[in-house]
Amino acid sequence: MITSADGTTVRVHSIGAGPGLVVVHGAMQSGTSQLELARLLADTRTVHLLDRRGRDRSVTGPQTPIEVADLRAVLAQTGAHDVLGISSGAIVAARAALAGDEVRRLALFEPPLPVGGSMRLDVLPRFEAALDSGDLARAMAIAMRVAEMGPPWMFRLPTALLAAAARRMLAADDRAPATEGRVPVRELAHALRADFAIVRENADRLEELAAIGVPTLLLVGTATRPYLRTAVDRLTEVVPGARRVELVGLHHAATQNRAERGRPDLVAPVLREFFAV
């Protein structure tokens, strides 16, 4: 457990030996969503898998500075200086690189940075209203539309059908046995409020990341959503000296465990090369 600046404790799962690498997960994930990736890097790195704090109702005000403070606390208390940020966690990682000198090398996987209306942020009030009313399934359905989660045919379905599918998912997950490291879907779905807050707070502010002054790797799958490719393309232009690598045939789940549709075996070699000591 790591204590952040405001006294909140955040959990970190550490594996391996060698210089530290902190992994900041994305939406609908926990730290152990990247456990298989960590194991593939653990022969030369100590990989710290950060569980981002419970993010639905516990925080008021801007979310980004709070999560940046959490990450900086983890870096300070583990002595790590390398960071891999994934999706919304990549936004946190990029902002941490601007906030202090703890980050010395930075890898960003498909940060959902809105550029000129590339994301449907206008429907977020409907998402928040559904959460506030207790209709978690409807909130998840709206979230699928905003983030374009899943295969393209899915988020084109009517919201009512998506909500029905989400209710079945929640019911099945509620019946699933508790296992170590497993975070209930219900909890992850509530945490979407904070993920979307980070996205909204950083909309059309991509040029600010031009001040990143550390070696930066930008990762994007060739099968991912267009708005994510747009963000990475713009970052490649903005961040000085950034290296862009395409992961052929991979989508937004690429870094996750195989059971979560990831391909950590294809991601690990790129990270190993970039973070080589």
From TrEMBL:
The keyword Glycosyltransferase does not apply. Residues 21-256 form the AB hydrolase-1 domain. Transmembrane segments: none annotated. InterPro entries: AB_hydrolase_1, AB_hydrolase_fold. One of its GO terms (molecular function) is hydrolase activity. The keyword Cytoplasm does not apply. SUPFAM superfamilies: alpha/beta-Hydrolases (SSF53474). It comes from the Bacteria. Keywords: Hydrolase. This is Alpha/beta hydrolase. It comes from Cellulomonas phragmiteti. The lineage of its organism: Bacteria, Bacillati, Actinomycetota, Actinomycetes, Micrococcales.
